[in-house]
Amino acid sequence: MSGVYARQSRRIAVLAATSALAATGGLLATAPTAQASPPTPVSAATARTYLGQLTVSPEGSSTGYSRDKFPHWITQSGACNTREVVLKRDGTNVQQDSSCAAVSGSWFSEYDGATWSAASDVDIDHMVPLAEAWRSGASSWTTSQRQSFANDLSRPQLIAVTDNVNQAKGDKDPAEWLPSRTSYRCTYARMWVHVKHDWNLKVDSAEKGALQSILNGC
After folding, report:
1. What would the pLDDT profile of 108-164 be if each residue is shown by its tens digit?
2. Fewer CB near the last or first residue (10 Å), C or N of the chain?
3. Could you give the CA distance from residue 56 to residue 25 in angstroms, rounded to a whole number?
4. Which of 152, 156, 146, 157 is nearest to 76 (CA)?
């Protein structure tokens, strides 16, 4: 429990410092707001079309699933792995050390609207979770295909967000979990459908219904 209390204390201190600086016109109040920037998803209209093209099927079994069957984070270039690449991409004023680890910067979490100044407070979320992908068709893929999916930088599959929000999402689909920031839900649905369509993954009926409802309101 001490680790949890330590993290909570650190976050309270960060938020208090941010508020104090904002009140006095300090640096954090005038610094640019970090904006997560994974590849732009397809438009809502295209997402609606894509959703209609996805195979609707009851969700498959989790039998045999393991995160180890989706190797990540792999080296992308030099000393930088996929996590560090996304931290750099999605953050503001990110500085990295010789090992490519992010040592400073700020990260805005689109899911909950929080901003963090420590990379340890940020997770890289798989938009379509690995276990969800497994139950939606990835169980039949090769390990190489699953590795490509788990480290996909060319589609809106990876995004830096608050760590405990990512953990709360777990392997839930949009019928079971959505970002608390309602203004981001349209983008979230577009990203989800974009990834599932490009990777030829299935959707279950409840998942499709939730996505349709969101996209129809976009």
Report:
1. 999 999 999 999 999 999 999 999 999 999 999 999 999 999 999 999 999 999 999
2. N
3. 53
4. 152
